[in-house]
Amino acid sequence: ALITLRQLLDHAAEKGYGVPAFNINNMEQGLAIMKAAAACDAPVIMQASRGARSYAGDIMLRHMIQALSEMYPDIPICMHQDHGNNEATCLSAIRHGFTSVMMDGSLMEDMKTPADWDYNIAITERVARMAHWVGASVEGELGVLGSLETGEAAKEDGSGAEGKLSKEQLLTDPDESLDFVKLTKVDALAIACGTSHGAYKFSSKPTGETLAIQRIEDIHAKIPDVHLVMHGSSSVPQYLQDLINESGGEMPQTYGVPVEEIERGIKSGVRKVNIDTDIRMAITGQFRKVAKDKPTEFDPRKFTIPAMAEMEKLCRDRFERFGTAGNA
Ligand code: G3H
Ligand code: 13P
Ligand code: NA
Ligand code: ZN
């Protein structure tokens, strides 16, 4: 059945677990996530970016979610808009059956220019008020996602803030978090702690200097009842970098967010953990492997079946390590 983010994260907080929020763009991702969730009895958050909505189409996504919930009637599913940039994006998502939206007012509508406090409060409060009228949940963001190493958002995929960001912007302020949630009435708060989108988060294994889990603990101490969201939470596992590079890929060595650091976050109020890059790498790794091992193959299912198995393995691991397993 479809449920809201609020319902799911209230349960997660009560039981002390975290929920991975996997980005989806197509049927294969949806099938693999649901198969993993059913195997470990976990509730699911699937999220679609604006890019995913224009790729698959709103009607296709709406019917896909309906289909997945019919196929897995015992698994609760929250369908969430990832990084909504304005009221129209959020409201049209709700109209297409999404039960939750992110209004990302940390950036202006162009999703490149860091926004100021007044803009973020006003637009997030407006979206939360409208979403709540119709029973949908809202995630807001305070702080700008980006690297504490370089002071920049990861831009290899063209997403994130443009220009240099200050440490102030890159680390969410605990006192401001309290005011932000009071003024906007969001159901969940995305915070910035040194993670960034994409594969190139850290140039070496992160330390307390580059990945500030301590900051999450400080925020949680101020607002213990607020559900926190960690963006940019792919672990960029070495085995997937190797899989890609052993099959003709040329991804430079990189480091993501170690799963044990996410587990630490979950102990401090992180309830939603956004993961896109790891799934992309699982798919691409298997596509490349099949292409390399069987150059005569041209049936796309021979590519998508191992890709789904690789995704499923990744999803199961996160459901288990985050404590989501057993909570459907
Ligand atoms: O926030 C970024 C997510 O990884 C979605 O990426 O906009 O390329 O679909 P996308
Ligand atoms: P990753 O790029 O680390 O997977 O982050 C995804 C994300 O935060 C989507 O909102
Ligand atoms: Na989101
Ligand atoms: Zn994100």
From TrEMBL:
GO molecular function: fructose-bisphosphate aldolase activity; zinc ion binding
PROSITE patterns membership: ALDOLASE_CLASS_II_1, ALDOLASE_CLASS_II_2
UniProt entry tagged with the keyword Metal-binding: yes
Cofactor note: Binds 2 Zn(2+) ions per subunit. One is catalytic and the other provides a structural contribution.
Binding site for Zn(2+) 2: 104, 141
Catalytic residue list: 82
Known EC number: 4.1.2.13
Catalytic activity: beta-D-fructose 1,6-bisphosphate = D-glyceraldehyde 3-phosphate + dihydroxyacetone phosphate
Binding site for dihydroxyacetone phosphate: 198, 232-234, 274-277
Positions bound to Zn(2+) 1: 83, 197, 231
Keywords (A to Z) from UniProt: Calvin cycle, Glycolysis, Lyase, Metal-binding, Zinc
Pathway annotation from the record: Carbohydrate biosynthesis; Calvin cycle; Carbohydrate degradation; glycolysis; D-glyceraldehyde 3-phosphate and glycerone phosphate from D-glucose: step 4/4
GO biological process, one term: reductive pentose-phosphate cycle
PANTHER family: D-TAGATOSE-1,6-BISPHOSPHATE ALDOLASE (PTHR30304), D-TAGATOSE-1,6-BISPHOSPHATE ALDOLASE SUBUNIT GATY-RELATED (PTHR30304:SF0)
Function: Catalyzes the aldol condensation of dihydroxyacetone phosphate (DHAP or glycerone-phosphate) with glyceraldehyde 3-phosphate (G3P) to form fructose 1,6-bisphosphate (FBP) in gluconeogenesis and the reverse reaction in glycolysis.
Similarity section: Belongs to the class II fructose-bisphosphate aldolase family.
Protein name per the record: Fructose-1,6-bisphosphate aldolase
Organism name: Celeribacter baekdonensis B30
